[in-house]
Write a structure and sequence with these properties.
The structure is a homodimer. By secondary structure, chain A is an alpha/beta fold. The first copy, chain A, contains 14 helices and seven strands. Chain A has three domains: 45 residues; 207 residues, P-loop containing nucleotide triphosphate hydrolases (Rossmann fold, 3-Layer(aba) Sandwich); 57 residues, no CATH class. In chain A, strands 3-2-4-1-5-6-7 form a seven-stranded parallel β-sheet, with helices on both faces. In chain A, helix 1 packs across helix 2.
Chain lengths: 324, 324
């Protein structure tokens, strides 16, 4: 593929061609070698769409809520892109697509663009692909970008953490408050929605979450995630979720640029980490060196310590060991 | 904690104290600062127990099969340690423990040691913790070590890949052949068990898997994973699974040391990767440098490329860029 072809796909994306949107997201998904150059070509158009990440345990009703949020965005005559990502369970690809059938009344609406991404067993890279796909949707001109994960876990957090606002969806029963706390879900939350609020235990769960949020944020100059209740399946309380999202966006307003730059640094960290790992272990000389250490009978930790010392000596002032 | 205390926990482990076994696994789980020194103390006793990793989609009946395999090991008057790991879904900790109730007839048997580990939202590290815990169980003197994951995904593969033999459990319906293929499950499999073989579609799934294995391994001098059927819940065909595992162990026999050393190199790779990431990005100077690049308006990929160039220049002959 020539640079001209690459540029033309970016041009077609910027011209609003839907086929180019789909194809450029495939480039993002497959880590196509042409993607970085294409990104250069449309980078100036990235950064306009607010990005909302949605996560929570399976069964909390995320898809139904996303569906209703998309409906609300459309009611304002704004367009929306929905990226549904399943980084940890390749085998649930079917379930994820099944969920999406609920959104089928959107499929004939050109103002809604829906795309699923499931892991295909590739080493990491899902968070990178998701950010790249959001950049593509943003540059294409969609007014809002949603990224939704199917499960919960580190890989899912990495995906939604790239959004401006993270909405954590819980429901009574599926994952109780203690579990949500333990799992680190609250650490990534900007807004907490207790869905299926008509079920028993919803009020108690909301109170638990409010207390946990309060303990976490009290006395610190940080955003206090609002806890709101809704029943997306009954189209009840969705406006409260929208208001909570809007309040977080208003809070970000003043420092949105810094907020996003900090998230971009994390993106660069992932990209560099993967390239460095490849350069050291796949094409580089670390594996045989460590193998030699292990043959001498040292433990893996001792072998790691020796190699790490060699590496950090070379890296000079770019690294700093924790002052242990 | 003094070195003497650390040494004494290792001594107590080697003396066969069950409390020391549980506590040392907690050290492994929590990445306790004393673990590497303790490992030095018991490293000479690591490497005797065959290690079996079990993975597959939720609902395939992994726990029931593991239960039956443990029963078979006990029938040979051999002891077994079972590590049940859920790296990607902290919120399913309850389900995992629920599954374990099925093993409760083992809980009064001192020849079976069962331990669950669920992610608590910590950054990675689950595969490291699992390998360390297996080393502890091995040094303690358990005759066999099983490590079982709850779901499927990269984090789960990393956990089971540290075992000598990886058993992939599928069942008709839950995850069909095409999905298993796409997910990369077959890439990690040494033995494939089609469980719930009494359900419709089991023979077809077995045939599909055999063909896929054949396509993957034909003409290459590699192990061809046997595909066996069983119905663990009915205690039917478990001996076929055991025979398939035994045949893989016999195949490994000649080069078990090399096989394990290659897996240890991967362990060192993970440990070094995490330390390097921390040294570069948390305590080191990479984040402000990248932030400065981003302020100039370059794309994240361009910022990554600049930093990567700086890093590899320092690392000299330890790294080698792929000859692109």
């Amino acid at each position: 593929m020539t640079d001209a072809t690459r540029a033309s796909l970016a041009d077609r994306l910027l011209a609003g061609e839907r086929g180019a949107l789909a194809r450029m997201i495939s480039w993002a998904e497959n880590a196509h070698a042409g993607f970085p150059a294409a990104l250069e070509a449309f980078w100036s158009r990235v950064g306009r769409a607010p990005r909302l990440g949605i996560t929570g345990p399976p069964g909390a009703g995320k898809s139904t809520l996303v569906d209703e949020l998309a409906r609300a965005v459309r009611a304002q005559e704004r367009t929306v892109g929905v990226l549904a990502v399943d980084p940890s369970s390749p085998l649930t690809g079917g379930a994820l697509l099944g969920d999406r059938i609920r959104m089928e009344d959107h499929t004939t609406d050109p103002g809604v663009f829906i795309r699923s991404m499931a892991s295909r067993g590739s080493h990491g890279g899902m968070a990178r692909a998701a950010v790249d796909a959001m950049d593509v949707m943003d540059a294409y001109g969609l007014d809002e970008v949603f990224v939704e994960t199917v499960g919960v876990g580190q890989a899912e957090y990495d995906v939604v953490a790239a959004a401006d606002t993270v909405l954590v969806v819980l429901c009574p029963g599926a994952g109780d408050g203690v579990q949500a706390l333990k799992s680190g879900l609250l650490e990534v939350a900007d807004v907490i929605a207790i869905n299926k609020a008509d079920l028993p235990g919803a009020d108690r769960l909301a109170t638990d979450m409010e207390e946990s949020v309060h303990i976490r944020t009290a006395g610190r100059e940080v955003w206090t995630p609002p806890v709101v209740t809704c029943s997306a399946g009954r189209r009840d309380g969705v406006e409260r979720v929208l208001e909570a999202i809007a309040s977080h966006r208003a809070h970000l307003e003043d420092h949105l640029v810094e907020h996003r730059r900090a998230k971009r640094v994390q993106q660069v960290r992932q990209v560099v980490g993967q390239r460095l790992d490849h350069a050291l272990w796949v094409t580089g000389a670390c594996a045989p060196r460590v193998e030699a250490h292990l043959r001498e009978g040292v433990t893996p930790y001792a072998a790691a310590a020796r190699l790490f010392e060699d590496l950090t000596r070379s890296l000079g002032d770019l690294v700093q060991e924790p002052s242990a």
